């Protein structure tokens, strides 16, 4: 049988009318359905947005879970409207709304409109940024954003980077490259031969306020949590330089091998920025890899007034920047940068089917050569449309605004006798605790009261705040990333803290304290 005969028979055997999923595929035949689905979704989102009056409903898991028990995933709903109506009750009625000005909990930001246009476009065409042959221009868009950020970082002409799923992955990459280049300089390839016998003596130094992904990375890299030395902080929650020097001397005396120092430019809990130039000088002196975790503080790169807070970042061997925090991008959108692009070869694997060595030799840009992911979202498009629509300076001004709000909020609230602050704010985070004079001295009671306050506020849904511990004591945390949050919002949330705190003390304080 000729190919021609087979083709004509086959088109009878598999007529297009019977293609499974035909009505649901994204292609030119379904444009009307595509537009209709998008418009219905858009209506759902905009109606919801208009109706949201507080950041959360306050629902408890055990209240919401039963609604899921009745859903049979093998039985589709009657029509598109029913699908979306169901989603509204299962998800949107009780979602946590980051765009709300009284959402003050974690490092979640309200997102910018151009980034949402990008989400629509990038998921429609579904490019995968691992190789040129799955993305073409998408690869060039990502690379241009990497080069743009590198220009702001000032890492020099040999630097390179790649988009990642988040700061956690970026920090893992930093320590992986630090580890493998450490051994490469000593003539050993970890990539080929695995960890050598002395790897148990490797140490990573970071401040006690650094992100837990440092510990997680150490474990994933075969070094273990014990490889991480937690360097004490000063009262502002910045790495204490005398303590760093002492730890480095202790390593030397004990025959340990300091691999990297992780400096944080904006700690997750306090927004504190480690003294980057001083740490860089220590690293240079001891020939240690310097990683700067700027997951939070990265947008200072664009700040019209506070760029100098990142002074010293240009000395880093590698840097983490989370665009999905202070650049107001939807999750995920993040990147990792290294001063010397050759270090990326420690994680390059040439697969014949995907990114053969011959492609690299021909100069085809395959970003998978720099990534620990293979299939990878075109997250770069969000930042691209954002910059092309509004420019970088306005993002910097937005970040400045929330930093100023934190300073003003601190000035307003520090006078309140029933509040104690952990420290003055540095970026846009306020760490405070309900501590009225009548209960001072009873730390256990105050700890319990502050735990209660956070839960009670979450249950009411009127605001969402976070919590953390400092020196063993329970604190509350406001992370400000919404430029539309006002001082009045902060005052209102403080009033909630006082209200719930006093209610708790009225219930639980010892009688003598109550009458005081
Ligand atoms: C948020 C954060 C991370 C982790 O980033 P993800 O994007 O959540 O993975 C790492 N370091 C710091 C300082 C952070 O604030």
Structure summarized in a few sentences:
With 516 residues, the protein is of the alpha/beta class. It has helices at residues 3-13, 31-51, 61-69, 80-90, 113-125, 137-153, 167-184, 190-193, 213-220, 241-254, 276-286, 323-326, 357-362, 380-390, 392-413, 443-460, 487-508, 511-515, and strands spanning 103-104, 160-164, 202-207, 228-231, 257-264, 289-294, 318-322, 334-338, 419-421, 429-434, 464-470, 473-479. The site of pyridoxal-5'-phosphate has 15 residues, from α7.
Summary tags:
alpha/beta; 2 domains; 44% helix; Pyridoxal phosphate-dependent decarboxylase family protein; Aspartate Aminotransferase, domain 1; 516 residues; lyase; seven-stranded mixed sheet; five-stranded mixed sheet; PyrdxlP-dep_Trfase_major
Describe it for me?
- Helices cover 44% and strands 12% of the residues.
- The protein has 516 residues and is of the alpha/beta class.
- It folds into two domains: 128-378, Aspartate Aminotransferase, domain 2 (3-Layer(aba) Sandwich); 388-515, Aspartate Aminotransferase, domain 1.
- Helix 5 crosses helix 14 and helix 7 crosses helix 9.
- The model has no long low-confidence stretch (mean pLDDT 95).
- Pyridoxal-5'-phosphate binds at residues 107, 166-168, 171, 211, 213, 264, 267-268, 293, 295-296, 322, 334.
- Keywords: Decarboxylase, Lyase, Pyridoxal phosphate.
- Belongs to the group II decarboxylase family.
Draw up the topology in text.
Layout: H1 3-13, H2 31-51, H3 61-69, H4 80-90, E1 103-104, H5 113-125, H6 137-153, E2 160-164, H7 167-184, H8 190-193, E3 202-207, H9 213-220, E4 228-231, H10 241-254, E5 257-264, H11 276-286, E6 289-294, E7 318-322, H12 323-326, E8 334-338, H13 357-362, H14 380-390, H15 392-413, E9 419-421, E10 429-434, H16 443-460, E11 464-470, E12 473-479, H17 487-508, H18 511-515
Parallel strand pairs: 1-11, 3-4, 3-5, 5-6, 6-7
Antiparallel strand pairs: 2-8, 7-8, 9-10, 10-12, 11-12
Helix pairs in contact: 2-4, 5-14, 6-14, 7-9, 15-17, 16-17
The structure holds pyridoxal-5'-phosphate.
